[in-house]
Design goal:
176 residues; Jelly Rolls; four-stranded antiparallel beta sheet; 3 helices; globular
Length: 176
Amino acid sequence: LRLARGKTIAELATAIGRSIGYVSQIERDQSGISIGTLQKISDALGVGINWFFQGPAAAPPGERDVVVRKGNRRILDLSAKGVIEELLSPTLTGQLELFITTFQPGSSTGRGGRLRKGEEAGLIMSGELDLCVDGKRFKLTSGDSYSLRHKGRHRFENRGSAPAVLMCVLTPPSSY
C-alpha cells in the first residue's frame, strides 16, 4: 500500500512520527504494532484502519453486507503484543463497528492506551481484564460490561493467567 501511494519508508516514518527502521520492521513482520500506530499509518496512507484487517475469501453473494460467518472474519493480528482483534461487522460504512479482542496473559493495549474519539461499550466474554480510565482501574470479569461515553484515553490489561475475550462496539467505526 505504501508503494502504491508513492511514499518512501522515510516519508511514512516522518508522517507517523516513528523511525525508518521501525517502519521497515513492521513491513517485514519483525515488529509488533499498536492500534494507535496503525491508525497513524492508515491516516498517512489515506485508508481506514479496517484496510489492514485481513480475512479469508469474501462472503457468498447476498450475505456480504449483512452476515459475517465465523470463518470469514477479518483479523488484525497483533500477536507480537499478545492481542488479536476479529472484526465482526460486515462493513465499516455504517455507524457501528463490532469486534472481538483476545488478550493473552500479560498483554495490554499499550502503556498510553487508546484515544477514543466516539462512544464504546463492551462485554467480557471470558477471563479477566483491567480497564484503566482517567487514572482509575476497574477489574472486569466474565459477564461484566462497560460503557465509555466521553472522549479520552483508556487501556485494557490482562493481568490474569488465562486469555481474556472482549466483545466491543464502537461508534463511529474505527474511532481510535
